[in-house]
# Entry
Amino acid sequence: MADLDEAASIFTGVRPRLFGIAYRMLGSAAEAEDLVQDVWLRWQATDRSVVHNPGAFLATTTTRLAINELQSARARREVYIGPWLPEPVDTSADPFLGAERGEALDLAVLMLMERLTPQERAAYVLREAFDYPYAQIADILQSTEAAVRQQVSRARKHVAGDRKIPVPETAQRQLLATFLEAARSGDLEALEQLFAADVASVSDGNGAKHIARKIVVGAGRVATFIAAFSSWYWDGVDVQWVTANGWPAAVLRRGDTLLGVVTVDASADGIEQVLWMMNPAKLGAAVAVTK
Amino acid sequence: MPGPDEVVHRLAAACRTGDAETIAAVLSPDVVAVCDSGGRVPAPLLPLRGAGEVAWLLRSLLPGNDLAVQSVNGRAGLVLRRAGRALAVIAVTCVQSQVTAVWVVLNPAKLRAWHR
# Structure
């Protein structure tokens, strides 16, 4: 029993940090609570006599569980109705989360981190928010120090990208037109040239047939993805130009059937995001907006 | 140069006047608003863009609600409550003295910790 008391005392000591890691990875306080609870159960069941550094062990368990959880969280977000934002946390009520370790907590930063791979996100969180040495992050992620340095550097660039200045509306519309032309013809090279290096293609299809369920990231992969359906998708498709909620958008129809609404979000580096609203349940609202 | 938290206080003061033009004056002309409703409460499904549109959105959220400035994810943000029940938590991104993005969380499932 004394052993379990000691286990509980160690766990309680690092709990705020574990929650901080899990929340920054998942963007959900509720899911982070569940995950930390899971870590506690595992910690109870662990042969603790062989654990030399309990803090490192618990951070490793939390990070690995969060990486796994992030995969399924992303799948759930694809069927989420409307834009997904992280669950906001009251940082005045949780001084540890807010004041002491404020890095990688800002809602806008969490949104930017959504576009990193789970490994990159973990590396960035452990480094920027908790100041872990690179060697230790490499241990936690079962990776090499060099790879971790690269992941953190890429993530930093991405987060700094927040300050990217969006291009004016007329240029957005021009980009969208050029993009649609290249998508229709399946011109891989032309597509790639339009994209920023870490462009993301986000489809909201609510699981409908022929709609991608995963967010596709990277100029090469997005170009390949879009070119892949050029041969059949665009046959007989009419494009109507509209301004939806202040963004240039294209409404796609085939005959009387409404297929979806496409918008792009661009910076000086090119198209940063391609947003495909293909969810039949939401198209009613989207089309109402275009009127 | 005012800090970001000061800009949020200015935004809150503008919201309290309830006047769209006063609100728009604190916003960048290119401001973007993203609403997360989870499909549970009415909200725009696409991002809103431009000071006019975003001022209209903020104004539409205000009537009958109490507005507080609170620490949201480490920065000053806005919380709207009615009879102690949180209806919206709004995180704000600022560049220099203007608001460039507002992130509006309306999904009741994400607001439980914000009730008073």
